[in-house]
C-alpha cells in the first residue's frame, strides 16, 4: 500500500458511475486510477478526486496494471479561491495538461509535483494576502504561470539563461532587448543596435520581472506565450494543448490580470 499526496491532473467518465482519474503523486509520478461509483453523490471521495485538487490518496501499487484502485482519498486543498477566478483556473489547467502530456512516464516526479503544488497554492492565495504562506507570498499571482513555465523548462533540461546576451556573452543590464523563442536566446541593447526587436516590449519586461523576482508582470500573457513557444520548440508539441483554447478565451474576458 502506498500513501501519497497527489494533484488531480485530469478526470473523465468511464461509465455511468465511474471515473478515470489521472493524478500526479508525490511518490510515484503520474498514476491512473479507476474510481468505481465515483460519480455517485454518496461517493466517499467527495471533492478529493476533482481536477486541480490536492489530496492524500492510498492505493496499492501494481506495475502490471494500467489502472489502479483508490482505497482512500482525503482532500487537502480544493483551491477554492483559484477556482473562483476563471483566468487562474485556465492557467492551472494548462499547467496540469502540460505535465500530463509531457512529463516522463513511469518515473517519480518530485520536482514536477513540487512546482505544481507551489504554483496552485500561489494562484489560490487571495490578492490581499502577502504573508499567509511565505513560500508563495513572494510570487505575485500574475507571475505564477510564467514562473512555472520557466521552472519546468529548467527541470526538463531546457534552461533559459536570462542573464547573458547570446551574441556578446556579456551580462544583460536591465530588460533584455530581444528574445527568440526558437532558440531561447536573449539579446542585449548594444547587440540589438538599430535592429527592430522581434519580441514585444511587454514580453521583455515580463522576463525582466522574472529575472529580478521583483514586481508583478503587467501583461503576463505575452511572456507566457513566449515561454510556451520556447517549450513547444524544444519538446515538439505534436498535439495541441487543448486547455490553451480555454485560456485564450479567459484572457479575452479578463485582460491584464
Ligand atoms: Zn550583447
Could you characterize what this model shows?
The chain has 257 residues and is α+β, with helices and mostly antiparallel strands. The protein folds into 2 domains: 76 residues, Nucleic acid-binding proteins (OB fold (Dihydrolipoamide Acetyltransferase, E2P)), CATH 2.40.50.140; 174 residues, de novo design (two linked rop proteins), CATH 1.20.1440.120. The protein is 37% helix and 19% strand. The chain contains 9 helices and 7 strands, in the order βββββαααααββαααα. It has a 5-stranded mixed β-barrel with strand order 1-2-3-5-4. It has a two-stranded antiparallel sheet with strand order 6-7. Strand 4 and strand 5 form a beta hairpin. Helix 5 runs parallel beside helix 8. It starts with a strand and ends with a helix. Bound molecules: zinc ion.
